[in-house]
Specification:
Blueprint (H helix, E strand, L loop, with lengths): L13 H12 L3 H8 L7 H7 L11 E9 L2 E8 L5 H14 L3 E5 L3 E9 L3 H10 L1 H9 L3 H5 L3 E12 L2 E11 L6 H19 L2 E8 L6 E8 L1 H4 L2 H16 L1 H21 L4 H12 L9 E5 L5 E8 L13 H10 L4 H24 L3 H16 L4 H14 L4 H10 L1
Antiparallel strand pairs: 1-2, 3-8, 4-6, 4-7, 5-6, 8-10, 9-10
Helix pairs in contact: 4-14, 6-8, 10-11, 10-14, 11-12, 11-14, 15-16, 15-17, 16-17
């Protein structure tokens, strides 16, 4: 089994990093060419087919987080993000979690929820009529996807709920669909639109909206990790981290920033493998407010030995088939690097990455502050951009940090002096 604990990965050249990733994930020469493409792996012609009114492409940095052990298996995790320190922080969090065995993660089956808004109906009567016709509705829905039906998946349940609005009461019909290894938006929308005329006929009502819900509460992923007390920095640091969590859990202003840090990890993976990051963010934020107020998505405590324990639970609607993941060349290679064989496995990796990132961010805040590490990495990037060699970078970084003049121009000046 390949080992994701790669010493000083950040110090290696691009070629060496690519060689390590290629060996870990068994990448082909064609895969490597995609990663080396200076256009981010996508031509304008392909972009023009993906979106309307295209005028170009936009690239973001793609990096690799190391050290991840999830449910006993090693992973290197591709992450696409423009913010310095995130990939390093996720790698560091995974390294500390690894001491106690890594991350234990579980994910629900891939159940998507479709909604049909019914107007102008006798709601109690309509609910009874829909219940009596549920088998017919499910059969019609499943006729729209031979693939899911053959796999024993597809539409599984029809339910109803009544909501109050300023315009009066409305009936919402919900369709529960097992979408397998897909994110499932298209098939969910197709099924909702397919059964809405029959619901109108059954209830003598009018269907308005027919669309999936991105609040994927039937697709919950839960990660847990134990961070050894000594590796965290001792009992006082553990207590400080728990106090920092309690701040986030009880103050919305802090909670938003705290949860943004979690999403730094989760969404960077989503970007790399072509997932719908907007849907993931929206669902996570709704889940953070499920108690009636916006709270921390993660929970932090300590065990009987004083070790730090982190738990992250989020709804994740993701897939490894369909969508951009099968269209974008870089997303396809990143999916191969990740090695996830199911939507559930992908959700587990993304949740573990969010927890690793949250650990590193909250530990930095509870000890030295967030800026020290962040600015050091920023300075390293600038020194490298100025053309410094690995041997020169540390010297330039130290001088910029000491002077508090962290800029590309200063990096170039220092390089000339060397």
């Amino acid at each position: 089994m390949p080992d994701s604990s790669i010493s000083k990965f950040f110090e290696k050249s691009r070629k060496d990093r690519l060689d390590i990733v290629a060996n870990f994930a068994n990448l082909s020469d064609e895969d490597i060419d995609v990663l080396q493409n200076e256009n981010g792996g996508i031509s304008f012609d392909k972009a023009d087919k993906m979106v309307e009114n295209a005028i170009g492409t936009f690239s973001l940095p793609l990096g690799i987080a190391t050290n991840f052990k999830i449910n006993g298996k090693d992973y290197i995790v591709p992450m696409v993000i423009e913010e310095p320190s995130v990939i390093a922080a996720a790698s560091k969090g995974a390294k500390i979690a690894r001491i106690k065995g890594g991350f234990e993660v579980s994910a629900n089956e891939s159940f998507s929820i479709g909604q049909i808004q019914m107007l102008d109906v006798d709601i109690p009567l309509a609910i009874s009529q829909i219940k009596n016709s549920s088998n017919e509705l499910l059969e019609l829905a499943n006729s729209k996807s031979n693939t899911l039906s053959k796999m024993g998946k597809g539409a599984k349940e029809v339910s109803c709920k009544e909501i109050d609005t300023p315009s009066g009461k409305m009936l919402i019909v919900e369709l529960l669909i097992d979408v397998g290894d897909a994110m499932g938006a298209n098939v969910t929308n197709t099924m909702c639109e397919a059964i809405s005329p029959l619901i109108e006929k059954i209830t003598d009502g009018r269907a308005l909206l027919r669309i999936l819900s991105n609040y994927s509460t039937r697709r919950i992923a839960k990660a847990k990790a134990v961070f050894e007390k000594e590796a965290v920095g001792g009992e006082q640091v553990v207590d400080n981290i728990i106090s920092a969590f309690e701040f986030a859990d009880n103050d919305v202003y802090r909670a938003v920033t705290h949860n943004k840090g979690i999403m730094n990890g989760t969404i960077a993976v989503a970007n790399a493998v072509g997932q719908d990051s907007r849907a993931i963010e929206a669902a996570a934020n709704a889940y953070a407010a499920q108690s009636g107020r916006y709270r921390s998505l993660s929970k932090w405590s300590k065990d009987k030995d004083g070790n730090l324990v982190g738990i992250l639970e989020i709804p994740l609607s993701v897939g490894i088939v369909g969508g951009i993941a099968n269209v974008h060349p870089v997303a396809k290679v990143c999916t191969k690097i990740l090695g996830a064989s199911s939507a559930q496995e992908l959700a587990c990796i993304m949740t573990a990455t969010g927890l690793a990132q949250n650990y590193s961010a909250i530990r930095a805040l509870a000890t030295e502050g967030i800026q020290k590490g962040h600015m050091r990495l920023h300075a390293r990037n600038l020194a490298a951009a100025a053309g410094a060699t690995p041997d020169q970078i540390d010297d330039i970084v130290q001088k910029m940090i000491k002077e508090k003049k962290i800029s590309l121009d200063r990096a170039k000046e220092l390089l000339e002096q060397i």
